[in-house]
Amino acid sequence: MNNNAIIECVPNFSEGCDMNIIKQITDEVEKIDGVKLLDVDAGKATNRTVVTFVGHPDTVIEAAFFAIKKAGEIIDMSKHKGEHPRMGATDVCPLIPVSGISMEETAEYAKKLGKRVGEELNIPIYLYEYAQKNAARNNLSVIRNGEYEGFFDKIKLPEWKPDFGVAVMNEKAGATVIGARDFLIAYNINLNTKSVRLANSVAFDVREAGRVKRDGNPITGKIVKDDNGEDVRIPGTLKACKAIGWYIEEYGIAQISMNLTNYKITSVHKAFEEVCKSADKRGLRVTGSELVGLIPLDAMLEAGKYFLQKQKRSLGVSEEELIQIAIKSLGLDELSPFDPNKKIIEYKLRDMANEKLIRMNLIDFANETASESVAPGGGSISAYMGSLGVALGTMVANISAGKRGWEEQVSFFSEWAEKGQKLKDDLLKLVDEDTRAFDEIMKAFGLPKNTDEEKKLRSEAIQEATKYACEVPLRTMSAASNALVMLEPMIEKGNQNSVTDAGVGVLCVRAAVQGAYMNVLVNAKGLKDVSFAQHVIEEAKTILAKTNLKADELVKKVEKVIE
Description:
Blueprint: E1 6-9, E2 12-13, H1 19-30, E3 35-43, E4 48-55, H2 57-74, E5 90-99, H3 103-121, E6 125-129, H4 140-144, H5 147-154, E7 176-180, E8 185-191, H6 196-206, E9 211-212, E10 233-234, E11 241-248, E12 253-260, H7 268-281, E13 286-292, H8 297-310, H9 319-330, H10 340-343, H11 345-349, H12 362-370, H13 378-401, H14 410-445, H15 452-493, H16 499-524, H17 530-562
Parallel strand pairs: 5-7, 6-7
Antiparallel strand pairs: 1-4, 1-5, 2-4, 2-5, 3-4, 8-12, 8-13, 9-10, 11-12
């Protein structure tokens, strides 16, 4: 594990109605330095709140401990009612590795947290998933079976002795399950019925565990047993999926409540489609869906691509459009507004200060550039010109993919459009990064220089910042030059009505490369590391020569078409 390790914690608290109680719990999280509260998702019908926060493992389990402590003090489980299965004030508290840490290391943190909660708070603790070695009790639903009311007897059984804490049910706080797991997507799909029976029938059709097999009547028939006396089960259609049906009084509808335990195996769009099929066979209709907590960006992008593909459209659209298509296709905004900035984990984690320029509108960006500030300067503008050049090529690819009579070429142009979107996004990131590189140089020059040691550290910082200021425009040159590879087939095979658009794209790319080249040269002049300076200059010269040669060739091809 490195010092920059990040884990996510997603505790579920048995309170979804009283926002004052919820606020007291989340205040405990926010008072811990280094922890970022990402999401608080309260459900009235389930009387349950899912909280999401991230940070270094040490700070995260500190925040989790105090949140569990507070929940145990202010939530009385003896009076709790709700649709969702539950066994404690803090019902479940999973830790999820995000970056710089393995699952095994995350599991050790779960054990550390469980031990502290059990010993200091007298709350019975059960470990699950990767933190639990006993396969007979590592499944959350198996552990929670019997729920709060049943645990007063269950906890006395030798096989259900808690992993930490005494084997006596805490009447007020209940018991808590703590573990380490992969990213889980809590996903509910809405039905046009109030019938829990019908909703459960759909849930049994799709969930991995399926339903028990019966002789004759699938509802009242005798349960079929195997040679060992165990129930024979008919598996559902979706792997890595847990599901039940329930009625949500708040919305007046029944839902399929799902936990997608591995969205790489069963995606949200696959789950949605399978529920649609099952519902249709039972005379039901899916009206939309909702996410509880957060979702990874790639899950949303893949959903957007899936529905675009069904429409036989190009997949090479912007990230924002893919997300919007996913929202509308899955009906994620049926019950309440869906804000990607609040529901997508990567968007919650990103630092908007690092995207200051590209988040500006055109007028503000132009005005900022024209102001007396030296940044943004030529490096940022070069990256932006490159992104516009790629955008024009991507536009031609998408127009060509949608051209009537070219249906057999949709895949060809769609693939180029996807590559163009990736290049465009890379260049847009370099718009702000070039300005940050300049800021790093200014910061280094501002360091104190009173003593010999301070002078030495200041000089080293200036040199490191200057190297960075050479590398950024060099990356701009490389990314922009690569755009010619996708512009060429657009000029040669794309919709010829848009060939001049691709031609302008070539000119933008050439200007971007030339402009970034100037930045490499001027920054390299300030380097004491002669070897490094020579290396970046030679690489820049090579990219420039290759770009100019190819750009000239492509411009001639465009001129030949329009003459």
